[in-house]
Design brief:
Helix content is 46%, strand content 10%. The chain is an alpha/beta fold. Bound molecules: D-xylose (XLS) and calcium ion (2 copies). One calcium ion binds next to loops.
């Protein structure tokens, strides 16, 4: 799968050509071993299934800085002291990277793309300027926008939240920013629009009215929905759950919480979920758990593909390498019919110690190969249907007789009592957990 390589006024990744597919056995770190964009799997190409995206923030704005020391990567595209020129250089670097990596999508926050100005209108102007250039770049390269979002968590004004801020003046600023970010997303043909509530939560219950904040949050989202629809945005709005960090408690703590919130406020027709694997693990679940919860609710939007570090429990945003987790998640997604507007966005960052230009490519290639392998394994899992059969069998008592009537809402608690009395102690039936867990490994080693 080749795309037009777009190089701006300068080449930022010299000596790196478009990444080829070389297949199993290749030892070229700058080649795909499993991701073959045009290979057909379960009726669609790998590119169509996986819909990979590169995130702007970690890859082009992150430098490796941490609370203990500065960044270790000094990007050539950040060298201009004029922030608008630096934004243009960053755009050139980003599109050169996307097209060399052959990734079909990208994602951004408004402030990744263009710097904040001294006033609302200057910020809007900055963004519009870069959006116009990005539109050209998209046309030239064929790369598309998976989703846009607004960074309403970095600026000091958002220290107590954005849409959930106790001060209406701050809420209004968040509104101005989301309006401009929606304009940008629509202008660039973005397929989804994301809300991640980084500071939508609280640090101290003693000074917080959670009811006011949650009501305000829902009102804000309703206004954003209506504005987006009024300017022609047809895609889903996505909420990205995360339980904590930066806030002690974030309202969108996991998939089930968000689903309940959206249903409570009547937003479930327009909103879906953008899951992030590392956020799911932070909330104490396996990545596949939240995928399943979203599928059950008909609300799986998109996925930020990464992983955490189970040993330290932070949001480490590492590139995905765990085939078992990816295969399991992909089998659920494939079985559900696959992504529609969503995809797999690498919301992942290089380690501070990874300082070579090549590391950017190697990290993404690894993530793409991991999910490509996951897809191949998922195809086998779904096609052979062994897990599906085991589940069917496990719930068979609800398919007929009183079990069926129970499901249909035809029984009362008295009926349950009569049934239990009549049939006596149920026979113990194994859940066969070890068998189903091992089965995934058998599939992994079969591809
Ligand atoms: C941070 C989030 C953020 C969202 C977009 O933890 O992952 O990057 O994806 O605002
Ligand atoms: Ca994310
Ligand atoms: Ca994260």
């Amino acid at each position: 799968m080749s795309q037009n390589i777009t190089i701006g006024r300068k080449e930022y990744f010299p000596g790196i050509a478009q990444i080829p597919f070389e297949g199993k056995g290749s030892d070229n770190p700058l080649a795909f071993k499993a991701y073959d964009a045009t290979r057909v799997v379960a009726g669609k190409t790998m590119q169509e299934h996986l819909r990979f995206a590169v995130c702007y923030w970690h890859t082009f704005c992150g430098t490796g800085a941490d609370p203990f020391g500065p960044g270790t990567r000094i990007h050539a595209w950040d060298s201009d002291s004029n922030p608008m020129q630096a934004a243009k250089d960053r755009l050139d670097a980003a599109f050169e990277f996307f097209s060399k990596l052959t990734v079909p999508y990208y994602c951004f926050h408004d402030r990744d793309l263009a710097p904040e100005g001294d006033s609302v209108s200057e910020s809007e102007k900055n963004l519009q300027h870069i959006v116009a250039l990005a539109k050209e770049k998209q046309k030239e390269s064929g790369v598309k926008l998976l989703w846009g979002t607004a960074n309403t968590f970095s600026h000091t004004r958002y220290m107590n939240g954005a849409a959930t801020n106790p001060d209406f003046n701050v809420v209004a600023h968040a509104g101005a920013q989301v309006k401009a970010a929606l304009d940008a997303t629509v202008e660039l043909g973005g397929e989804n629009y994301v809300f991640w509530g980084g500071r939508e939560g609280y640090a101290c219950l003693q000074n917080t009215s959670t009811k006011t904040e949650l009501d305000n949050f829902a009102r804000f989202l309703t206004m954003a929905r209506d504005y987006g629809r009024s300017i022609g945005f047809k895609g889903p709005y996505l909420i990205e759950p995360k339980p904590m960090e930066p806030m002690y408690h974030q309202y969108d703590s996991d998939a089930q919480t968000v689903i309940g919130f959206l249903r409570h406020y009547g937003l479930d027709k327009d909103f879906k979920i953008n899951l992030e694997a590392n956020h799911t693990t932070l909330s104490g679940h396996d990545p596949a758990h939240d995928v399943q919860m979203c599928i059950d609710a008909g609300m799986l939007g998109s996925i930020d593909a990464n992983r955490g570090n189970p040993q330290n429990g932070w949001d480490t945003d590492q590139f995905p390498t765990n085939i078992y987790d990816c295969a399991l998640a992909m089998s659920l997604i494939l079985d559900d019919g696959g992504f529609t507007s969503g995809g797999l966005n690498f919301d992942a960052k290089l380690r501070r110690e990874s300082t070579n230009m090549q590391d950017f490519f190697i990290a993404h290639i690894g993530g793409m190969d991991t999910y490509a392998r996951g897809l191949l394994i998922a195809e086998k899992i779904v096609k052979e249907g062994k897990l599906a059969m085991i589940k069917d069998q496990r719930y068979r008592s609800f398919n007929s007789g009183e079990g069926k009537e129970f499901r249909e809402g035809k029984l009362s608690l008295n009926n349950l009592r009569e049934h239990a009395h009549k049939h006596g102690e149920p026979v113990l039936e194994s859940g066969r957990q070890e068998y189903v867990e091992n089965l995934i490994n058998d599939y992994i080693f079969s591809i």
